[in-house]
Amino acid sequence: MKKYLVEFIGTFFLVLTIGMVVIDPGAGALAPLAIGSALMIMVYAGGHVSGGHYNPAVTLAVWLRGRCASVDVLPYWISQILGAFAAGALALYLKGNPTVTPAEVKIVPAFIAELVGTFALCYVVLNVATAKATAGNSNYGLAIGFTVMVMAFALGGISGGAFNPAVATGITFMHIEKSANLWIYLFGDLAGGALAALTFKFINPDDK
């Protein structure tokens, strides 16, 4: 249960940060910096307990890579989604329950952007947090948080920059994105995570 609670807490603060810096009055162009920093902080805070996934796509990638027990996958996903809903509700309350106009995205470019951004995130996670050659490093949280920040700056204008099905659920709940487009994030992000795991295993066949 401690692992699942940590996943709930980490995802909660990630999604809360997103809601607070994206919904007006927000942080404007600096929002990706705050979001990436929030993830970095939570990864350092909880990585030693749960692995600091806070993202169903990361959990999928780590499971496919062989570093997450099958019995933990569904509870991790549930904890992450619940954390996103709780954070979304609090963000809306703190913002005064504003009327939020969902962003407009183009389906194919958004799907590609989510797949690519999530691939980058999961690929970095697998290499800095699960590979034998990088075991014990102290920069894993920084690398993971900066990956989200960079991808958000680079691709956020195309898809909204979720790169995380739990985040996608949270921003849909907050009406930042349209509910009709939720599938883009669910399928695109999980596909990116799976592709990252397969790529990692191809490049590192002896890293079991």
Summarize the structure.
With 208 residues, the chain is mainly alpha-helical. The protein has eight helices and no strands.
Major sheet attributes: none
Binned strand content: under 5%
The fold-level CATH name is: Glycerol uptake facilitator protein
Q: What separation lies between the terminal Cα atoms?
A: 26 Å
Rg over CA atoms: 16 Å
Oligomer: single chain
Q: Return the domain count.
A: 1
User: For the record, what is the CATH homologous superfamily label?
Assistant: Glycerol uptake facilitator protein
CATH 2nd-level architecture: Up-down Bundle
Task: Give an account of the 3D structure.
This protein is mainly α. The protein has a single domain (2-203), classed as Glycerol uptake facilitator protein, CATH 1.20.1080.10. Helices cover 72% and strands 0% of the residues. The protein contains eight helices and no strands. The longest helix is centred in the middle third of the chain and has 25 residues, at 70-94. The radius of gyration is 16 Å and the shape is globular. 50% of the residues are buried. The model has no long low-confidence stretch (mean pLDDT 97).
